[in-house]
Amino acid sequence: MQRTRREILLFMGGGAAGAMLTPAPWRLVTDAAIWSENWPGIPRPARGEITARYTNCALCPAGCAVRARCVAGQPVSLAGVSGGPLSLGALCAFGLTGHHLPYHPKRLKQGTPEEAAAAVRGAMAKCGPSENIAVLDLAPGRSASWTYRRAMAAVANGVYLAPPLPLGGAAVNLAKARIVLSLGAPLLDGWGTPGNVHAARANFRLVQAEPWESRTAALADEWLPIRPGSEAALALALTDPKTAASAAQATGLTEKQIAGLANELRANGPALVLSADDLPEAMALNQALGAWGQTLAAGSEAPLPDVWKKAAPERVVASVADNSIRVLFIDESVPGSHIPWSAVEKKLVRDNPVVVAFAWSLEGYGRHAQFTLPTAVYPELTGDIPPAVDSPAATFRIAAPLVAPPAGMTDPSAFIAKATGIDPGNALQERADAIYKSGQGTLFTYADAKSTPLKDLKPADFWKSLNEGGAWIANAAVGQDAILRGDCQSPRGPIANRPAGCLPANLPHIGSLDTAFPLPVAFSEPQSASLTSPLMSKLYQDSDLRMPPNTAALHPDTARASGILGAARAVLETQYGRCAIGVIPDASVPPGMLAVAAGAEVLDICGALTRAKVVAA
Amino acid sequence: MKIPVYMPFLAGALAALGAGWVGFPHAIYKSRPQPVDFSHKVHADKAGTKCEDCHAFREDGTFAGIPSLSTCAACHAAPMGTTVAEKNFIDRYVTPNREPDWASYAQQPENVFFSHITHVKLGQLKCEQCHGDQGASDKLRPYQVDRISGYSRDIWGPTLFQSKAAGTVPGMKMDDCVDCHRKQGLSHSCLDCHK
Question: How far apart are CA B109 and CA B189, in angstroms?
Fold first, then answer.
């Protein structure tokens, strides 16, 4: 039977129409979409036994206790440890996504350690008598830090550099505070140990004095909108009422408001004063309010092995002569404070200094170093976490690795120890042994939420528990063997009688800054160049809930005065240099200031108490 | 005889409907038998076991899913009856201590987070509400998997013709989850399941 072309086309048309009335095409579309999500090469989550492992988060000095849910040994989710005495079950958003970091696309995977070691040897050999070999440790107080200090003590002209400790090394006891005056400190936005802060929050009244309504200001009991850069003047007036008139002029508050606040701080104590940049005026106010011994105490570290005590002193970068550092090691393997690169750079000798950075990404100082050696990143790394600023007692916690680091990673301690000819030993275990010998304090183990006095443990059990998720906490009083931190290292008599408290050293006073840069800089995001999980940037930065790095928000009037109204990009200039930034006009930022989200480039030119100006790109 | 002009169109439509409704569902799935001839009914009726006796929660609240061999061997280290199925099970798996290669009908894809304990203990859902009346089944159905997507057939739920048929299970697609959450007035945001 002959079929015409018309009949065949009609048959095909009918088939197509009929197919539309069946599940086949729709199901094929769905299946093809699902199939396209499963290309070869897409990581497959492991399948296997589900276990829980415990460690301590090494992403900030809070060192929160972490419970990792692991499938076939691979951590798939992180959570806080309920009952943990230091972090009280909390884990911040950065900590919750910490297990993504080893897979960050910007992870540094290769380095040239042999070439770096040869360059260091050569530079050390020709180091002159007035030149230095230095370690810049961005997270001081760790056992690795003591290895660096020992290494620097072992070489001629060795210098151990670290950023100033918060509050000069003092520790805050928030649980005792009944009123807290925060001079721009991000108390409810990542300051200290978040779990501890939020647990104590119900018991104190929070007064936030800050030019703009930051997240902490929005959550405070009272927000005092003061003029940008007037925090020191307010603190001074609260200490010495004779300056109230000038403070009123500087801050924009009335004298009556200042007097009322001063009375409130004195009447409703114990009081505590915190400031974003550790202003000396804030510490002096604490002294005047009798905070020492109440809400503030000398911060202390866990006991040390005796052989470690021959160590180089801790110094700040500013204390080193310009053009004097021949070899500089920078350890940024764990996130820590940031010092503007320009402040570091001017300390280097002019002719061929050797800078070796230990980092897990190229976002920090690695951009400026001759050699950047890749390191393990949390949760691969093994190291201890120094006591947090809000921990009145000395603590010792180990960030035990949840996953093995990839091949080719450099251990900064081992590298520096080898370069300086000292034996790094097993610093963590040696310190654990020293703590055990002190016989004081308790060990809290995360798996069973149990506190055990140290004297009831055997040394091997203590070490094992520390590595399986635990925290040693000293007795409340500063132990005889504890090491006082920061400027509190040489107490002159009882702490309460110390005339000036533990004033932070080498901080520039606001009045001494160059007025060519009229805009005070407030950091709206954490001051760290360290990368966070890419998932975090999708949830926060891309959605404008948090500003992306290297961005500044400013009032439209400020933008107009700076000649950048309507521009999406501009140039930020400070006394340290200039860099390109994104600009967001925001009427909630008061005129005359910048709210800046830190990024590596911004941190290169912005330190504490920075003033800046913005100009057209 | 002259064929009406619409007949080729109708024939094409009918052929496509037949292929789409009858042939396609057979072609899209490949099936394999379960490794053991297991009867839920015998275990539920004769041994009096409950779902959670074998499909238990671990101490940390996670769901163990299909029981491991050790759970089965706790009762069947030696034959308890005279059936061939039990004898085969002991000979092939218990004696050589080899885990049966069970296929999970309800295996959700990798991008779904589902907490059994939240639904069973907090939500008070019965197992049958999602898994159908497995306790009444005398045989294990062959495991059917979509050739393209790799999803179990049970995820898609019953076909149009078997929505009320015995032995079928409700679907476990995203829409099914969302429907139930909507009815209960519960949260159904993306991050609830896709963490």
Answer: 18
Cβ-defined contact of A34 to B28 (cutoff 8 Å): no
Question: May I ask the CATH class of domain A519-616?
Answer: mainly beta
In degrees, to the nearest 5, what angle opens at C-alpha B113 toward C-alphas B109 and B119? Answer: 115
Residues from B in contact with A at Cβ < 8 Å: 3, 5-6, 8-17, 19-21, 24-25, 28, 58, 60, 62, 109-111, 146, 148-151, 195
- Judging contacts by C-beta atoms under 8 Å, the chain A residues touching residue B25 are 23
**Residue A4 pLDDT > 50:** yes
Q: Are A565 and A610 in contact (CB under 8 A)?
A: no
- What the block records as the tokens of A614 is 């913005």
The residue of chain B with its CA nearest to that of A45 is B110
| CA pair distance A558, A592, nearest whole angstrom | 6
Domain boundaries, chain A: 5-36, 50-93, 174-294, 519-616
Q: What share of chain B is helix, strand, coil (3-state, %, to 5)?
A: 45, 5, 50
> What type of residue sits at position A182?
S
Among A83-87, A146-150, A434-438, name the one with the lowest average pLDDT: A83-87
Quote the pTM value. 0.75
Sign of CA dihedral A349, A354, A357, A358: negative
Which pair of structure tokens corresponds to residue B60?
């940390």
| CATH code, residues A174-294 | 3.40.228.10
Complex confidence, ipTM = 0.81
pLDDT tens sequence across A330-375: 999 998 888 888 889 999 999 999 999 999 998 889 999 999 999 9
The per-residue pLDDT for range B116-173, each reduced to its tens digit, is 999 999 899 988 888 888 888 888 989 999 999 888 888 887 766 665 544 566 788 8
User: In the prediction, which pLDDT does B192 show?
Assistant: 87
Residue A404 burial (10 A CB sphere; 0-12, 13-18, 19+): exposed
> Which residues in chain B are contacts of A72 at CB distance < 8 A?
none
Chain B contact set for A15 (CB, 8 A): 12-13, 15-16
Residue A493 has pLDDT above 60, yes or no: no
Alpha helices, DSSP H, located in A543-612? 556-561, 600-605
Calpha distance A610→A508 (Å, rounded): 9
CA A335 – CA A378 distance, rounded (Å): 10
For chains A and B, CB pairs below 8 A equal 89
